[in-house]
Amino acid sequence: MGQDLRSPRGPQGNAAKCIALVGPFQSGKTTLLEAIMARTGAIPRAGSVDNGTSIGDANAEARAHRMGVGLTATTTTFMGDSYTFIDCPGSVEFAHDMRAALPAVDAAIVVCEADARKLPQLQLILRELEDLGIPRFLFLNKIDRAHKRVRETLATLQPASRVPLVLRQIPIWNGDLVAGFVDLALERAFVYREHKASEVIKLEGGDLDREKEARFSMLEKLADHDDALMEQLLDDIAPPADAVFDDLARELREGLICPVLLGSAMRENGVLRLMKALRHEAPGVAETAKRLGVPDSKDAIGYVFKSSHLQHGGKLSYARVLSGHLDDGATLLSSSGENGRVSGILAASGGHDSKRASAEAGETVALGKLDHVRTGDTISTGKTVPASLVNVVAASPVLAMALASADRKDDVKLGQALLRLTEEDPSLAVVNNAQTHDVVLWGQGEMHLRVAMERLHERFGINIKSHPPVIGYQETIRKPITQRGRHKKQSGGHGQFGDVVLEIGPLPRGEGFAFQEKVVGGAVPRNYIPAVQEGVVDGLQRGPLGFPVIDVAVTLTDGSYHSVDSSDQAFRTAARIGLTEALPQCQPVLLEPIHTVEIVCPSEATAKVNAILSGRRGQILGFDTRDNWPGWDTVRAMLPEAEIGDLIVELRSATAGAGSFTRGFDHMAEVSGRAADQIVAAHRVAA
């Protein structure tokens, strides 16, 4: 590619670098990783996502769906230096893997394309990086398919970034096709050669004029943070090349700019120039450790960003060593207070992990058999529990599925498998529904849950049956009534006798259940009153409509007993009978749970979101601009739980995959008429 005008300095101390590959869904991240690995000699030729031969999509689920469903770490060398690339999933449903890995990387390559429809997704990713203070390059991929001028594309993408997107390269056009690029920092032109190094050509004519204009624009943006450079531009003095490169590196590392490079991952164009930018300008592990607040210590300190349970190899904890030297067999303390002995250190190499004796600061490795260490833990060889460097909180789950093993003998196995899945992916959550006795798996979307169920089947050998979670319908009453309940049974020897008179009436919404007694004259002995209350509670478990009954007050006013045949069980049964006979006469009414829902979405999709909510019986409470998110809105609404089930599917369809929501139970509301009849009928059929 021609000689580089810069000095041949590499990373400080030649420590290994760790770089994240992030970007919107199907932007070409995995293809770029293949191109990097091929161009740096780590693999003989680039694999293909479509053919299932790529390093980044090494697991069965990723290959089956032709998309990243988890992160992949793989290592290569370039000009004598080591680089670990972490290929992060682009789908928002698998974003937790990215969030957990990002804090420990030195820099990120944001892979995107000239597609305005993916702008909201791009903004989500850039915001994560900005908030974490991670230096980032933007790699404008698929430049060979570009139909817009690069400045128009940059103007389209700029709203996604809070800092200036600074063009480092401009394309060389041959008619309507991009034939190469001009490096504005080097002031050199290169012509692409497919799967080969680009060829240096002479810069002349219109390309030279475009280069001078674009370079001046780049220098102007750099000069916003460099007074000396600003003076040179004002005095029409050409700045020294080294000063320009130093400014590019400094402003990248300080998060003042986001440099933009061009290329085509599929054709391996622009890859070596990207690698050189990483080598010279991206920070190293020392600066990353400083950003995270790693204490100055001789102990090895690392951060665990991913946990994985192998089918036959036990648990692996993927970690970045941030300082010190770590030996195989070392005892590690985690920030969660657990300790464990390392049983194997594996180099991260895209599913073909090789064992090694130790790891140094900067290296990314997989550590074996740290069974009690969790994703997000800080680990140390020191004698005291290390402070947690990172706190990664999983996004609130938005879609649920009730699961059960097809064979009851696999129930215990299912429970253990779900524990492992949620350890590997904390954005999954398992809830045991005490009312329905269902095991409910919560996730970030339809594909997220589908992949989880595929793993339960393929990796753990469990056949799963599933259904949508049962909605928490309840019922209450409108009319008070007094009812006698008698239980009398004689079958030889001691019989059973219990007799109660109950006053049953409605309570205000949200009051739950109240029980009291006003028995006089010992009609019901006091030692039986707790049993009466238990019988009332039994009767409230299933009302005449088929659901639990709430907001009811019951008063025991009278009754009778038998000195021999009365017992706790007899009075409990009498109370249940009395309540069960009374409730159908109390004008029962169906109640459904109503949730407060808060949706975040791009502003252009707000009208669609409002229409979705209205179509789902939602009551829109209002909407406003999202704080510190230009071009985004927050919509608040009340929505029945029954309408939230697949809301995320429709919401993401309307927002190009970027919208999401949080919810919380608010109150129970009456359902009447045909809607109530349909719910009750469906429940009876299901029962």
Largest sheet: 8 strands, antiparallel
Tell me the number of helical segments per DSSP (H or I, 4 or more residues long). Answer: 17
Across the major sheet, the strand order is 16-15-21-12-13-20-17-18
For the terminal residues, how far apart are their CA atoms? 71 Å
Total beta-strand segments: 34
Strand content: 25-35%
Mean pLDDT across every amino acid position: 91
What is the helix content? 25-40%
Structural class: alpha+beta
Low-confidence stretches: 1-13
Overall form: elongated
Radius of gyration: 32 Å
Keywords for this entry:
17 helices; 34 strands; 687 residues
Account of the protein in words:
The protein has 687 residues and is of the alpha+beta class. A hairpin with a 2-residue loop joins strand 7 (169-174) and strand 8 (177-183). Residues 1-13 have low confidence and may be disordered.
Sum this structure up briefly.
By secondary structure, the chain is of the alpha+beta class. The protein is built from 17 helices and 34 strands.
List the helices and strands and how they pair.
Layout: E1 17-22, H1 29-39, H2 60-65, E2 72-78, E3 81-87, H3 95-101, E4 107-112, H4 119-132, E5 136-140, H5 150-157, E6 165-167, E7 169-174, E8 177-183, E9 188-193, E10 196-201, H6 205-223, H7 227-234, H8 241-253, E11 258-262, H9 271-281, H10 285-292, E12 301-310, E13 314-323, E14 325-327, E15 331-334, E16 339-341, E17 345-347, E18 354-356, E19 358-360, E20 364-368, E21 378-380, E22 399-405, H11 411-424, E23 429-432, E24 439-443, H12 446-458, E25 464-467, E26 474-477, E27 481-489, E28 496-506, E29 513-517, H13 529-540, E30 552-560, H14 568-582, E31 588-602, H15 606-615, E32 619-625, E33 632-640, H16 647-654, E34 660-671, H17 673-686
Parallel strand pairs: 1-3, 1-4, 4-5, 5-11, 6-11, 29-30
Antiparallel strand pairs: 2-3, 7-8, 8-9, 9-10, 12-13, 12-21, 13-20, 14-19, 15-16, 15-21, 17-18, 17-20, 22-24, 22-25, 23-24, 26-31, 27-28, 28-30, 31-33, 31-34, 32-33
Helix pairs in contact: 6-7, 13-14
